[in-house]
Amino acid sequence: MSESTETATASLGISGEFTIFTAGELKHRLLDTIDHCNGGAIEIDLSEVSEIDSAGLQLMVMAKRHATSQGKTLHFCRHSDPVLDLLDLCDLAGFFGDPVLIRSRQQG
Amino acid sequence: MNLDDALKTFVIESRELLESMEEALLRVEQSPGDRDLIAAIFRAAHTIKGSAGLFGLDHVVSFTHNAENVLDMVRSGELGITGELVALFLQVCDHMGLLVDHIEAGTEPTVETHARSAELVGSLKTLAGRPAAEENTPPVRHETPLERDNTNYGEGVESDNWHLSLRFGADVLKHGMDPVAFIRYLTTFGRIVTIVTLTESIPGGPEMDPECCYLGFEINFRSDADKQTIESAFEFVRDDARIRILPPHSKIDEYLELINGLPEEEMRLGEILVRCGTLTQAEIDAALATQAAARDSGEREPAIGEVLLAQQVVQPAVVDAALQKQRQVKESKQGDAALIRVNAEKLDEHINQIGELIIASAGINLAALKTGIPELLEAASVMNRLVENIRDSALQLRMIQIGATFNKFQRVVRDVSKEIGKDIRLEISGAETELDKTVIEKIGDPLTHLVRNSMDHGIEAAELRLARGKPAHGTLRLNAYHDSGSIAIEVSDDGGGLPRERILAKAIERGLVKPDQVLSDNEIHNLIFEPGFSTAEQVNNLSGRGVGMDVVRRNITALRGSIEIESVEGRGTTMRIRLPLTLAIIDGFLVGVGNSSFVVPLEMVVECVELTDDEIAAAQGRDQLNLRGEVLPFIRLRDLFGIPEAPPPERSEAEKLLLASVDEELAFLLQPIKRENVVVVNYAGMRAGLVVDMLQGEYQTVIRPLGAVFNGLQGVSGFTILGSGQVALILDIPGLIRRVADSESRRNRQLTKHRITE
Amino acid sequence: MAKTILIVDDSASLRQVVGIALKGAGYEVIEACDGRDALSKLDGRKFHLIISDVNMPNMDGISFVKAAKQLPAYKFTPVIMLTTEAGEGKKAEGQAAGAKAWVVKPFQPAQMLAAVAKLILP
Question: Any idea which residues bear Phosphohistidine here (chain B) (predicted)?
């Protein structure tokens, strides 16, 4: 997990599980990254996320809103497949407004 | 692993469970308050039912289900343990065994079996206080529908799709339930046309509890599945979530209820439903207008969603205090946590391989000795030790406690004592004594016969017992213990003992002994093992099944064992079976006679002494010697097996030279002295000597059964192949000792007779 | 990466059949014969789901689930408990211990597969 704080563009990489098991810790990291970012932009790298569940999804929403409430912009980038799957399933790609790979929804 | 293998496992497992069920049933009668026993009985039925269901063995499931119902009543204290209940469950146990037999054989239960099932189910229901006709709850439960069915009145909306409205409770994530997982599951039997994820409830940064769930979903779902299937997707969060499922073409009121029942604002929800494509804008406008009008006029909606939901969700968990109190079976009850099941054939194969390994290792050892290279000798001895260890641990694998075999007799004693009208109690000791699996498998029948014989002929009727000053109830004892490399199994009773005179009379009548023969008590007792001997005046269906005690002895002898009797008239009888611990490998003592080699089981060797000419002279032609004041009969193996004298060893040139160069007296001393040795063996308290030429030391031996050619060869129990490739016969010491004892007693008898006639 | 499931039941045949079904569906399956055995298998492995019987020797399912939920790595792991229709009391106890999903014995392999799929897909 890499972190750089007190810079114009803060960035945070999340790796491994982005789930209920890691939610407590990741919430703090996300808030820290946002709060300590002096500039206006935060980038969260999701390329190393191996698993994500509802808890992870909630944190993404929370982080986005928290940044917005401070007048900062937060972007999720390099979404891993599990993240894309989830956003796709919940139809939330639009909510985050981040560029994601367009994939056709799996239809059952 | 395939299903067939699993079915085999099921058969084995069920038999084991039924065995422990039976054991617990027999014990619970004496201690009805023992909750552990009741739990064990319950668990046996429960486990069999659970597994049978997986294999689709419905007849087993429904039969066991009835048994389980009654057991559950016992567990909760509604029903008490009675003799009647135990008797019925013993029958149930037997019947389940029968059903399992059918499964193993792959046959359908017969009409009789089904009839028996029905009969027992009837008895079970009667016992449970339920009329036999009452319909049984089906074993596979159907969940009650989450919501009332969609009664199709009024005009339905246009949508062809289901509408799912989901609000997950705060704790679902903590419980390991992931809302998106349920939604993902929906996609396995339908298509999510539109989904709106509601994230409004997620609090701002610092206040948010990352482990809380704040999510809601509105889903337009296209599926051919029925309502129950869709509902069941959420069965695990039913108590922790608000789930509303509206079928296609539900009437508009239902959507209104939905909107009313949810926390979000009406307008937003209406929007969502439209966005989902569930409702058209016109439909929602009309609906909201109707509702507003109704509210204005003060009418209460007939069915507010919230109320409905409240009604649906309520499912009070009935806390059964009795169940909660019930403690789980003691940990010590079964210490088999880390057990694995191994195919017996594989194990035998493994043991055989180890047998070969032992032989090979002995060969290497001999070869190493010949070379005299220290490194090789060292390596060979290390390997020898390791092979020995492997042998020990491998044999240990086959050792089983005799307890399970003993416990089977609880049932036999119980049933038989009822049948013959005697009150007989069984006491078991030494249940933890271990012996080889093969021996255990083969000892059951002889043991059964001895037990039945004791119950039938040994223990007297109550009146007679009282007259003899004994307690009215007879006691039968099963005991096992290790004794000098063999295992002793005793069947004792406190009955009348063997009637010496009656046995003798019968034997004379049958022509087994001559009227003038003088027999010791022991010899008379042993007569009952003669073929065709039975003292019972009336042959009943227990002991008189055409299997005599002679068969018992034959079976035991076939296991390289022996049986002896201790009996005191009026006091009781003990039948003692002695068996080798294992049938596969023995520690042997290798001896040589001429060019032949023999193996004596090491555990029976007491000592080795030199047979001097003085002693031979002192024996006065009789085959016995004086061993520290005791008379020891002996057998010359050379005579027994007709072995020719070995030719004098070839002398080397050097020796010849040496002999030629020394004087006559010295040459005599250098002559190899023909010296014999006596191996003193002990078995079942009797001693005998075996006269051999050479003592070759301890030797590990794999017993190979004698082929048909050697069958009936006296004094030999098997053979083995030595490391050198030579064949060595394994001596049947019990047989030889019996032989010595017989000839001894014959001689004594003749002597006594002489004295009498004199 | 296949999802790994721990199945805990004292019936070997039940474990085998469920194992066959789950493996066929693409899950990895580890078996344990009772609570104590199961607890010893939790270390050094990530299970995505635990299926456990209630009534078992040595350590029953409820105690096992309670103990497992104490471990950080299994605090939030979904648990399916196997029960009988007669086990309502146990169910309340199990719910308190953190087991929210219940499957009633006897069940068909397909029923178990469906129950598992609701919680995790392979």
Answer: 46
Pairing relationship of beta strands B596-601 and B727-731 according to DSSP bridges: parallel
Residue B266: CA count within 13 A, CB half-sphere: 11
Tell me the shortest Cα–Cα distance from B209 to chain A, in angstroms: 8
Report how far apart, in Å, the C-alpha atoms of B486 and of each of B356, B438, B548, B582 are.
24, 14, 25, 9
| B86-93 own/partner pairs: CB under 8 Å, 24+ apart | B86/B25, B86/B26, B86/B28, B86/B29, B88/B120, B88/B123, B88/B124, B88/B127, B89/B21, B89/B25, B89/B41, B90/B22, B90/B25, B90/B26, B90/B411, B91/B120, B92/B67, B92/B120, B92/B124, B93/B18, B93/B21, B93/B22, B93/B25
Say yes or no to pLDDT of A17 above 50.
yes
Contact B178 C78 (CB under 8 A): yes
Name the residue of chain A whose CA is nearest to C69's CA.
A21
Mean of pLDDT values over B259-277: 69
Q: Which domains does chain C have, with CATH numbers?
A: 4-119 (3.40.50.2300)
Q: What is the mean pLDDT of residues C51-72?
A: 89
Quick one: pLDDT band at residue B757, thresholds 50, 70, 90?
A: very low
Q: What is the pLDDT of residue B319?
A: 21
Token pair in block for residue B739: 């032989």
| B31-47 tens-digit pLDDT | 877 888 888 888 888 88
Treating both helix axes as pointing N-terminal to C-terminal, what angle do B3-28 and B403-420 enclose, rounded to 10 degrees? 60
Choose among B138, B139, B121, B141: nearest CA to B130: B121
- Which among A24, A58, A66 is the nearest to B215, CB-wise? A58
What range defines the domain where residue A70 resides? 3-94
Provide ipTM, 2 decimals.
0.91
Rounded mean pLDDT, B425-443: 84
CATH code (residue A39): 3.30.750.24
Q: Is residue A36 situated within a structural domain?
A: yes
Domain count of the fold of chain A: 1
Instruction: Specify the pLDDT at position B499.
Output: 85
* Mean pLDDT calculated for residue range A44-61: 94
Question: Hey, what are B331's tokens?
Answer: 């940990």
| Distance separating alpha carbons of residues A17 and C76, to the nearest angstrom | 13
The neighbour count for residue B133, using CB atoms within 10 Å, is 7
3-state SS record for B663-677 = CHHHHHHHCCCCCEE
Report the residue of chain A nearest C120, measured CA to CA. Answer: A53
Q: Is A36 touching B (CB cutoff 8 A)? A: no
Q: Test C75 with A50 for CB contact under 8 angstroms.
A: no
Q: What is the DSSP string of C53-85?
A: ESS-SSS-HHHHHHHHHHSGGGTT--EEEEE-T
B222 closest CA partner among C117, A108, C119, A85? A108
* Euclidean distance between CA atoms B135 and B215, whole angstroms: 44
Both tokens assigned to B434: 């271990």
β-strands B399-401, B216-222 pairing:
unpaired
Q: B195 Cβ partners below 8 Å, 6+ apart?
A: A89, A90, A91, B183, B217, B218, B219, B220, B276
Instruction: Indicate the length of chain B as a whole number.
Output: 758
Strands B424-429 and B474-483: parallel
Question: In Å, how far are B64, B267, B299, B303 from B262, measured between CA atoms?
Answer: 46, 12, 20, 14
B308 falls in which pLDDT band (50, 70, 90)? very low
Rounded CA separation A94/A100 (Å) = 10
Phi, psi torsion values for B217, nearest 5 degrees: -140, 140
Half-sphere exposure of A60 (CA within 13 A, CB side): 30
Q: What is the pLDDT of residues C73-121, one digit of tens each?
A: 999 999 999 887 656 677 778 788 878 888 888 888 888 999 999 999 8
With beta carbons less than 8 A apart as the criterion, state whether B78 and B39 touch: no
Helices (H), chain C: 12-24, 35-41, 61-70, 88-97, 109-119
Is the CB of C76 less than 8 angstroms away from the CB of A50? Answer: no
